Amino acid sequence: MPRDHEKIVVITRKTALEELIERFHTRDQARFYVEHMGASFDEYQAAHDVYRAAVEVLRSSLPRGVRHQWVDRSFLPNFLFGEADLIVTLGQDGLVVNTAKYLSEQPVLALNPDPARFDGILLPFTVHQARDLLPQAVGDRLPMRRVSMARVDLNDGQALHAVNDFFIGPKSHGSARYRLKFRDVEEDQSSSGLIVSTGAGSTGWLRSILTGAAGVAYGHVATPEVARIRDQYRFDWEAEELVFTVREPFISRTSAASVVFERIRSGEFLELVSQMPQNGVIFSDGVEEDYLPFNSGSIARVRLAERKLHLLVGLEAPSKHHWQSWR
After folding, report:
1. pLDDT tens for residues 47-72?
2. For the CA atoms of 72, 76, 79, 81, what is the dihedral angle to 10 degrees?
3. Cβ proximity of 199 and 238 under 8 Å
């Protein structure tokens, strides 16, 4: 990467109020709909006002002499990033995740526009720090974490990346049927689908699955070891491994469940052969609309991606040791 970035690309997203106005054409009609349904319109307005104020703070913080461009999230699939771009995201964690899929090695400065509403696991900074941070980021003077990502490849040539996790399974609440191949095990399974998580995603969907599994196990065997599973979900963002877990595996005459939780280390891959005539899907990071079909004849291979999310962090960023567990 160059020592100085030639352009700042700011990624924003529409607020919930703006999406409502797009749907109902006017603010008054949006208000009528929300209040008619018994909800408060004031919260939509307040969140919108905070975000728009954050946009103006960021706009006034952009350093002079550096080109900049503003891009709405909806244009990301067709936007061409330059190798020397510095990427600034202003939104929730999901905006960072969505943006990362379209980058190569460009660094990301992720700003939290509304800390009162957003926890911001992937948002190290608030928008009010932008004025001081941007000159450092342009000059490559901020520390960086290279966050591991996952990649799935289908036998028809399609591919998809994930910052947090993949879901592989049925489009609805039916059963997923597939042949699982991992290391020296190969078996037919029936389940609610699989989750493949990165370290960054380990605090999300993976955590909820382990919490539920620990609760069920604790109801049968109330030991401290089982209870600790609830607190051992997190692993390092830069870890060179993924974790996959099978949701609600069902054992029958035609399906087994000997492999339901494993790590995919660097150089390994998980192979899944779809046995679903229809409604099989693979999507990443909770974006169900942007999915790959995974129906009969499809073969998916999941592995660590070569691509990383280059996330800029502060000097006080958590150490690797802070994020590691259940090694």
Report:
1. 999 999 999 999 999 999 899 999 99
2. 100
3. yes
| Closest by Cα among 154, 161, 158 to 104 | 161
Tokens of 276: 């679903």
CA–CA separation, 194 and 282 (whole Å) = 10
Phi, psi of 151 (to 5 degrees): -140, 140
DSSP 3-state assignment of 165? strand
Q: Which amino acid is at 55?
A: V
- Look up residue 29 and give its two tokens: 């009609």
- Cross-strand partners of 112: 126
Give the tokens for residue 66.
């550096």
User: Using one digit for the tens of pLDDT, what is the confidence trace for 245-264?
Assistant: 999 999 999 999 999 999 99
Write down the H helix ranges in the chain: 16-24, 27-36, 41-61, 93-100, 130-138, 205-220, 224-228, 320-323
Count of Cβ atoms closer than 10 Å to residue 132 Cβ? 10
Backbone φ/ψ region at 106: left (φ over 0), alpha (ψ -120 to 50), beta: beta
CA 144/CA 244 separation, integer angstroms:
27
Query: What CA–CA distance (Å, rounded) separates 211 from 307?
Result: 30
